[in-house]
């Protein structure tokens, strides 16, 4: 199995892409620490992994809280003895033009989508340095690579994640810590229902895509698995699009 003996922490693991990453990692032999603010769904994903024979824990830190990050990492170290993989996946969507967007919303989106990635990375690096390396995967978006008619703060926050990822890769490559970003396109989750407000918009957008379909959370999870595993041992600072060719 590709993640045998490794421990992974996945944020936003109660549903969508994060839950798929947690399931795929566990099936590949990793011990998985799931975190999310959604307690019920998070516990259900943990139970499903355990029932399938995997090893998983669940905790409820808010990714925007530095004390929560310290606490959850201490818990992971106590329980599993190390931390090899971090997937910064938790995120929120927002829909506003520049003029409609207020500073409070801008700050909130930047905090949940971008500051969380900084805090998680900062909290994990000392642990990974001590153990001789690790892999950090930040879930950005194709939104980091282009603008749109709406979702101003969302695009800006994902752009921040992408460039932060490169800086972390440059700074910590010498310690065996690889840091990469994954850029999903339209993936069938609760978040996509917020992006495509109605069926007509969804149909138009999807028909304009090279593969004429949206992606599944599992298809993103398999790309994340590649970056988490030793199969990508010389890949760092990379931006991997999983968008069915949408940006091609
Ligand atoms: N679905 C898509 O089409 C798509 C496309 C590009 C990028 N993404 C990115 O993928 C990631 C996962 O998105 P998804 O589609 O699975 O969305 P989702 O809404 O289904 O899942 C996001 C998860 O993050 C959790 N979360 C939100 N705020 C949190 C906080 N403060 N602390 C802890 N957990 C928090 C939510 O509770 C939820 O379980 C996000 O970063 C999103 O921006 C999604």
Question: Can you describe this structure?
Answer:
It is a single chain. Helix 5 (152-172) links the parallel strand 5 (134-139) and strand 6 (177-184). The longest helix has 29 residues, at 103-131. This protein has a single domain, classed as NAD(P)-binding Rossmann-like Domain (Rossmann fold). It has eight helices and seven strands, in the order E-H-E-H-E-H-E-H-E-H-E-H-H-H-E. The model has no long low-confidence stretch (mean pLDDT 98). The protein is globular, with a radius of gyration of 17 Å. Helices cover 47% and strands 15% of the residues. It has a seven-stranded parallel β-sheet, with helices on both faces. Helix 1 (16-27) packs parallel to helix 2 (39-51) and helix 4 packs parallel to helix 5 (152-172). It has helices spanning 16-27, 39-51, 66-80, 103-131, 152-172, 190-195, 199-207, 217-228, and strands spanning 7-11, 31-35, 55-59, 85-88, 134-139, 177-184, 239-242. The chain is an alpha/beta fold and 248 residues long. It binds nicotinamide-adenine-dinucleotide. Nicotinamide-adenine-dinucleotide (NAD) binds next to helix 1 and helix 6.
């Amino acid at each position: 199995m590709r993640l045998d003996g490794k421990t992974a922490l996945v944020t936003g693991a109660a549903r969508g892409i994060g839950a798929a990453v947690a399931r795929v990692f566990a099936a590949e032999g990793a011990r998985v620490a799931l975190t999310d603010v959604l307690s019920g769904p998070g516990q259900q994903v943990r139970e499903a992994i355990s029932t399938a024979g995997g090893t998983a824990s669940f905790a409820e830190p808010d990714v925007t809280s530095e004390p929560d990050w310290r606490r959850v990492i201490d818990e992971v170290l106590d329980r599993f003895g190390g931390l090899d993989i971090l997937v910064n996946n938790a995120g929120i969507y927002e829909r506003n033009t520049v003029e409609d967007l207020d500073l409070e919303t801008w700050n909130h989106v930047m905090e949940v989508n971008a500051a969380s990635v900084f805090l998680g990375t900062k909290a994990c690096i000392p642990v990974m340095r001590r153990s001789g390396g690790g892999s950090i995967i930040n879930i950005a978006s194709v939104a980091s690579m282009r603008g749109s008619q709406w979702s101003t703060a969302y695009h800006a926050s994902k752009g921040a994640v992408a460039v932060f990822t490169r800086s972390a890769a440059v700074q910590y490559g010498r310690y065996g810590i690889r840091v990469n970003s994954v850029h999903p396109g339209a993936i069938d989750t609760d978040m996509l229902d917020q992006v495509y407000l109605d069926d007509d918009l969804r149909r138009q957008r999807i028909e304009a895509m090279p593969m004429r379909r949206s992606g599944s959370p599992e298809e993103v999870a398999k790309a994340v698995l590649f970056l988490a595993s030793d199969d990508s041992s010389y890949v760092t600072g990379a931006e991997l699009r999983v968008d069915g060719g949408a940006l091609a």
